[in-house]
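Take a protein:
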Amino acid sequence: MYVFKKTKIKIFWGNSAMLRKKECVAMLLAGGQGSRLYALTSNIAKPAVSFGAKYRIIDFPLSNCINSGIDTVGVLTQYQPLVLNEYVGNGQPWDLDRTFGGVHILSPYEAKTDTSWYKGTANAIYQNIRFMKMYDPEYVLILSGDHIYKMDYDKMLQAHKAANADCTIACMQVPFEEASRFGILNTNPDGTIYEFEEKPAKPKSNLASMGIYIFTASKLFKYLEEDDKDPNSEKDFGKNILPNMLNKGERMYSYRFEGYWKDVGTISSLWEANMDLLGVVPNFELSDREHEIHSRSPLAPPAFVEGEIVNSIVATGCEAEGRIVNSVIGTDCVIEKGAEVCDSVLMGNITVRAGAKINYAIIDEDVTIGEKAIVGAPITEAKKVTGKTNGITVLGRGINVKKNGKISAGEIVDKDV
């Protein structure tokens, strides 16, 4: 049985009925294509990609919300939403199946005056402004659906209120050589932001935005409405909303995060985040009861293990008779006797036949690797391969690799071999 924090609901008594409002609602951006994950997102949205043997990426922000006392979440979907929509369902695994609030899937829809896909992050939120206003919130939390981390958003909200801020941006220090990949905050000693640079070529600091924002709702609605009327806007938070607020002198603060956080938008970062589960990484214990990550993982019997397992995670429902080293093996996988899996991520319902060898690879769900097939190359050899995946071999969903088939290091495969 799970124990969750109390929901924050303000209650007002009217003449004839009880009217309720939420202090804070969350808007989760989950509609991106995730093109840098290649075959892994050919048929599903990036937040629905499997992670860590029993989770999907979207489990993290949804769990963070309920663990932080936020029980009203809009999930904005667009690209290949079928698997994601089915997975989220009514929100029961995250205690988000509520009669007032809960989780809501928000897709683009036909309106009386306009019909369009989401044009950018700001436009996606703007198109759902009526959803937010329905709960009359004092604050709105904006989240991305492609990050692995555990965070108490309530602490950030309290900091936002204490500073009387109009916008608070979660941030953390990153290596200077990586800073150009992020929105960069330039701040004063008291944490106020005086400049925001979206992916600058020559960053002035290494304080990177995590893509997590808390807005005072009235300010957010004002700037979204103004942005929608601007024909020159790119409809983006980093490029438009945040700079516009700074230029007009709004109170904007940084909120420093010290825990584990990983943007898993590339093959390399997704592999690294999975491998982090196998090592000693501070603040990255997923079974922590104080801040547990919940998932809609399938019911399955305990894993049947007769093979050699070295520094690996093997999920329930697996049959492991082969050799598994430094790997993350998802639910219902079968590793037959004589097969080897090293330095790899197998996402679920994968069969590796006898004599097959898998090295330095990420393999999506519902894949069969035939007898004596070879996928990838040993990690020391594969890392010498240049290309889109830095030597990691990637197999998409539903692929069959025939007996004696071979897939070289760094290949991206989305059809049978």
The CA atoms of residues 166 and 251 lie 5 Å apart. The longest helix spans residues 217-229. The mean pLDDT is 90.
